[in-house]
Structures are given as structure tokens and as C-alpha cells.
């Protein structure tokens, strides 16, 4: 029997290739954008670059520009990556190669979903590391920058921003981001499994009829989601006492239940109804 | 010989179409068995059900007494077309996957088979011809120490000379107690290997005979198989 950890590592290894590819494309795109910006702005456009009121050299300014554009492009790269991995996820869910792994189909599904999500988080970590490295470069670039930043931070510290900052709220937002990200993979699989089970059950159909089944299934799934979030939403909102500032915990609870419920349904669907695609 | 595979009252429908109906089959360990039948007879479906990748069937399938799919998957090796890998995957990467995932995968056995099949580990799947890909699939399948090997039309793209060499060597690649269930259209080429023949017709097992029983009737396996369809051809 294959262990959960072994399959997870294997799936993550395969998916991280896409992570590196997206990361690389994002980086190259950022460099190209900055070069174009440089060309259109003309020579010497970085000569007067400043950080925290301190003049920095052109190279640091250039690296900083690339990092800025790179991080800006994350808002495109992450949704694109989410779509790419969802597509891959569903291909693996029905792949005979993967379904022959000596593990229950439900566990293969869990392993696949979690490894996709982990690879998504991995991309976010790589993007964060770029920000960290660039910050380090800027910080080390000159003593004037360090002095300028220190002065800026000490000014901010006078207002004791930490006293009123809701650290617990930040944790809740972080948890919500994880649960919502996971929900995307879960709901895509739910739609895929339900439509596949219906297509396999009904008499053989042509391409157009299959398209109609998929559209109808999509409408039903959206309706079910609406029903779920409406009915559970009212209950959960009372539970966390609305207006208390804890609404983000309400979101956490809602998506936790959604992940467990629809994930559980997917587990059952793949165990009982959704078979591997024939070679 | 001990009982290896038992299939009882197996029925399978897909898209409201009966693919298999009331299939009953029992195979012992240590045999080489041909699974014969026309295209679309349900041979591949039967293998997929045994392998645990086809769903929604009725009836029981047990391998060494184990009915759970996960247990069956651990005990059998099925020729998979490797569609789960991208075309840019190299042979050596596919092998690494098998080493990591299948605890019964024998790396040394694969190395021997790879040399026998003349496969370059640096080649990508997209660079392989149909025959070369089938050779790789056979090498991967037989590198696992399984109790049951399911070979679904494994030689259809392999040239006649290589096919002959592979068929002659198959018996050396399996443990004595392991059973091979092989579906193939080249009945005459595999007939010398066979211990038993199973014929799938009209959605069920039409006949299950030993090769000796067929030969006792002064027929070759090919003649026997063709005889089952003779009436239809006359009509």
C-alpha cells in the first residue's frame, strides 16, 4: 500500500514544476515591463530615485521597480495559477495512472486536492520571498537608506499602532484566506464529479447534449451553494454575534463547514461513482 | 494451485447500456490465461473492474480473498497507457514515479527489461513510437512483483519480430505463482504460452476452458476461437 505522505510528495513534486514555471514567467514579465518603462521614460529616469526621502542608486531603484511590478503581477499570476492547478487537479482525479495507485480513491482525491493547494501556497511563499530579498537589498544598499527607514519607523512607533491592532483579526483573515482557497478546489471537483456521474448515468449523448448537461449541472451547483450559504449563513451570523467585530470568524466558520461538507461529498462521489477515464 | 481471482454475478452498465452481465469467473494462481472476444465485447471493462478503476458494478470481485479495491490494486499490475504523465516526461522520471509509488517495484528487474526492450531512459514519452511506448508499458508492468498481471492488448503496436521475442520471454518475467490475464488479437502468437482461455461474448463469459481441453478436441486455440464466431459469419 502507498502511504498518504508518499503520494502527496509525488503529486507536489509534479505540481511544483508548474509553480516554478508561473514564477519564472511572472519574473520575466516584470523585467520586460520595467525595460519597456525605462525605454519609454528615456535615459537617466532612475537618477533621482528616492526611498524614505533618501536618494538611492540606479541599480537599487531598478531592482525595486522590478520587484514592484513583479508583486503587482501576483494579482494576475495567482488566479491564473489557481485555474491551471484546478484543471490539472481534475485531470489527475480521473487519470487511470493515478487511480491505480494502491490507495483508496477517496484518499487519492484528498491527497490531490491538498497537494494542489500546497503548491498554490508555495507560489505565494516564493512571491513573498522576492519581496523579502528586495527589501533586504534596499536596506543594505546604503547607510542613508537604513537611517531614513529607522527614522520613518520611529515616527510611526510614536503612535503605538500595535496597541489598537487586532492581531487576532489578522489570524482570522489568514485562516479565511486558506479556507476560501481550499474551497475553490473543492467546489470545482464537486462540479466535475456531479456532472461526470450524470453524464455516465444518462444514455450516451453527443457533444452538444453533454454541454447542456454540464451547463444544467453548473446551474444546480450554484443554486445549491446559494442555498447552503443562505441557510448556514444566518445561523453562523447569530452564532458569532453580528456587529461584534468578529464577522471574519463567521466567514471562517462558514467556509470550514463548506470545505468539510463538499469535500466529504466529493470523497463519496469518487469512491462510489466517478471512475477513472479509460486509456 | 490456489484460487487467485473470483468474480461472482458481476454486471456493469454505463450510459444505460449493458456492458457486462452476470459474469462469473475463477482463476487459479500460476496460470497464463487469454481473455478473448471481439472489439467492444467488454474485455477492457472487465480488466478495469478487476483493477479497481471502473465503478458502479454489481457483484463481487475478490483477489486472494480481498474484495476491497485498495487491496486489489496492491496485488495486481495493470498495463496503463501512462496518460497521467505529460508528453515531456522522460522515461527515467516515469520509473522514479513507479519506484516511489509501488512498493513492489523491482528496479533491477526494470533495468533488465529496459535493456531487453532497447529503451533509452533519457527519451521523452512524446519521442516514443506506439511500439516503443508499449514496450515501456510492458517493462513497467512486469517490474512489479504482483500476484496478477492484467495485460490489455499489450502488443498491438509492436513489430512482429519484437513481439515474438517478448511473448517468448514473458514466462521468465513472472513469479511461478503469479497469474497473467492477457487480452490480445494475436491469438496464434500467444497460444503456445496459454494454460487457459476465457471467451467474452454477448456481455458475459461464454466459455472458460483449459488449453489442454481445446487441444484434446484436435483444435488449435485459434481454430477454437474462430469456431465460436463461425455461425455468425455463415449468417
List the helices and strands and how they pair.
The complex is a heterodimer of chains A (279) and B (235).
Chain A lengths: L3 H38 L8 E2 L2 E2 L2 H36 L2 H4 L5 H37 L1 H15 L3 H4 L2 H35 L5 H33 L7 H26 L7
Antiparallel strand pairs in A: 1-2
Chain B lengths: L2 E12 L2 E12 L3 E5 L6 H9 L5 E7 L5 H7 E3 L12 H11 L5 H11 L12 H13 L5 E5 L7 H14 L5 E5 L3 H4 L5 E6 L2 E7 H6 L4 H8 L1 H5 L1
Parallel strand pairs in B: 3-7, 3-8, 5-6, 6-7
Antiparallel strand pairs in B: 1-2, 1-4, 8-9
Helix pairs in contact in B: 4-5
What's the gist of this structure?
The complex is a heterodimer of chains A (279) and B (235). By secondary structure, chain A is mainly α.
Distance between the termini of chain A: 23 Å
Task: Note the beta-strand portion of chain A.
Answer: under 5%
Q: Indicate the overall shape of chain B.
A: globular
**Assembly level:** heterodimer
Total DSSP helices of chain B: 10
Largest sheet of chain A: 2 strands, antiparallel
Order of strands across the biggest sheet of chain A? Answer: 1-2
Structural class of chain A: mainly alpha
Name the CATH architecture of chain B.
3-Layer(aba) Sandwich
Structural descriptors:
heterodimer, A: 279 residues, mainly alpha, 2 domains, two-stranded antiparallel ribbon, 82% helix, elongated, B: 235 residues, alpha/beta, Rossmann fold, six-stranded mixed sheet, three-stranded antiparallel sheet, 9 strands, 37% helix, globular
Notes on the structure:
The complex is a heterodimer of chains A (279) and B (235). Chain A has a two-stranded antiparallel sheet with strand order 1-2. Chain A contains 9 helices and 2 strands; from the N terminus they run αββαααααααα. Chain A has helices at 4-41, 58-93, 96-99, 105-141, 143-157, 161-164, 167-201, 207-239, 247-272, and strands at 50-51, 54-55. Chain A folds into 2 domains: 1-161, no CATH class; 166-279, no CATH class. The longest helix of chain A is centred in the first third of the chain and has 38 residues, at 4-41. With 279 residues, chain A is an all-alpha fold. Chain B is an alpha/beta fold and 235 residues long. Chain B has a single domain, classed as P-loop containing nucleotide triphosphate hydrolases (Rossmann fold, 3-Layer(aba) Sandwich). Chain B is built from 10 helices and 9 strands. In chain B, the strands form 2 sheets. Chain B has a 6-stranded mixed sheet with strand order 5-6-7-3-8-9, with helices on both faces. In chain B, strand 8 (196-201) and strand 9 (204-210) form a beta hairpin. The interface between A and B is medium-sized, with 33 and 28 residues.
Amino acid at each position: 500500500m502507498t502511504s498518504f505522505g508518499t503520494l502527496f510528495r509525488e503529486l507536489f513534486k509534479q505540481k511544483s514544476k508548474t509553480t516554478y514555471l508561473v514564477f519564472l514567467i511572472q519574473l520575466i514579465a516584470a523585467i520586460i515591463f520595467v525595460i519597456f518603462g525605462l525605454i519609454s521614460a528615456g535615459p537617466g529616469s532612475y537618477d533621482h530615485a528616492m526611498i524614505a526621502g533618501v536618494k538611492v542608486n540606479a541599480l537599487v531603484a531598478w531592482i525595486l521597480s522590478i520587484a514592484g511590478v513583479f508583486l503587482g503581477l501576483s494579482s494576475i499570476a495567482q488566479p491564473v495559477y489557481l485555474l491551471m492547478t484546478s484543471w490539472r487537479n481534475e485531470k489527475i482525479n480521473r487519470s487511470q495512472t493515478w487511480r491505480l495507485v494502491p490507495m483508496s480513491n477517496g484518499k487519492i482525491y484528498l491527497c490531490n486536492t491538498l497537494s494542489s493547494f500546497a503548491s498554490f501556497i508555495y507560489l505565494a511563499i516564493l512571491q513573498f520571498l522576492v519581496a523579502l530579498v528586495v527589501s533586504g537589498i534596499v536596506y543594505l544598499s546604503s547607510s542613508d537608506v537604513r537611517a531614513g527607514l529607522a527614522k520613518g519607523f520611529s515616527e510611526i512607533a510614536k503612535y503605538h499602532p500595535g496597541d489598537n491592532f487586532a492581531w487576532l483579526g489578522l489570524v482570522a483573515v489568514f485562516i479565511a484566506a486558506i479556507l476560501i482557497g481550499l474551497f475553490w478546489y473543492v467546489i470545482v471537483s464537486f462540479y466535475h464529479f456531479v456532472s461526470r456521474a450524470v453524464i455516465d448515468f444518462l444514455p450516451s449523448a453527443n457533444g452538444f447534449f453533454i454541454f447542456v448537461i454540464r451547463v444544467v449541472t453548473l446551474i444546480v451547483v450554484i443554486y445549491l451553494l446559494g442555498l447552503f450559504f443562505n441557510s448556514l449563513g444566518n445561523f453562523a451570523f447569530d452564532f458569532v454575534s453580528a456587529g461584534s467585530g468578529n464577522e471574519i470568524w463567521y466567514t471562517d466558520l462558514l467556509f470550514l463547514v463548506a470545505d468539510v461538507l463538499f469535500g466529504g461529498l466529493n470523497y463519496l462521489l469518487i469512491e462510489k461513482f466517478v471512475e477513472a477515464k479509460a486509456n | 494451485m490456489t484460487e487467485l481471482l473470483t468474480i461472482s454475478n458481476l454486471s456493469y452498465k454505463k450510459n444505460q447500456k449493458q456492458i457486462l452481465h452476470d459474469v462469473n469467473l475463477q482463476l487459479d494462481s500460476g496460470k497464463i490465461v487469454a481473455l478473448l472476444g471481439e472489439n467492444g465485447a467488454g474485455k477492457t471493462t472487465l480488466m478495469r473492474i478487476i483493477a479497481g478503476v471502473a465503478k458502479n458494478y454489481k457483484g463481487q470481485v475478490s483477489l486472494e480473498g480481498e474484495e476491497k479495491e485498495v487491496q486489489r490494486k496492491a496485488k495486481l499490475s495493470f498495463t496503463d497507457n501512462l496518460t497521467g504523465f505529460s508528453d515531456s516526461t522522460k522515461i527515467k522520471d516515469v520509473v522514479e514515479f513507479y519506484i516511489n509509488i509501488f512498493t513492489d517495484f523491482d528496479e533491477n528487474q526494470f533495468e533488465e527489461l529496459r535493456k531487453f526492450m532497447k529503451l533509452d531512459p533519457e527519451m521523452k514519452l512524446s519521442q516514443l513510437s506506439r511500439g516503443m511506448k508499449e514496450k515501456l508499458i510492458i517493462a513497467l508492468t512486469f517490474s512489479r512483483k504482483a500476484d496478477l498481471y492484467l495485460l490489455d492488448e499489450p502488443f498491438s503496436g509492436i513489430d512482429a519480430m519484437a513481439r515474438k521475442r517478448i511473448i517468448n520471454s514473458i514466462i521468465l518475467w513472472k513469479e511461478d505463482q503469479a497469474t497473467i490475464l492477457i487480452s490480445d488479437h494475436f491469438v496464434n502468437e500467444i497460444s503456445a504460452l496459454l494454460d487457459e482461455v476465457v471467451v467474452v461474448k454477448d456481455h458475459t463469459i461464454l466459455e472458460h476452458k483449459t488449453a489442454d481441453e481445446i487441444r484434446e478436441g484436435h483444435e488449435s486455440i485459434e481454430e477454437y476461437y474462430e469456431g465460436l464466431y463461425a455461425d455468425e459469419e455463415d449468417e
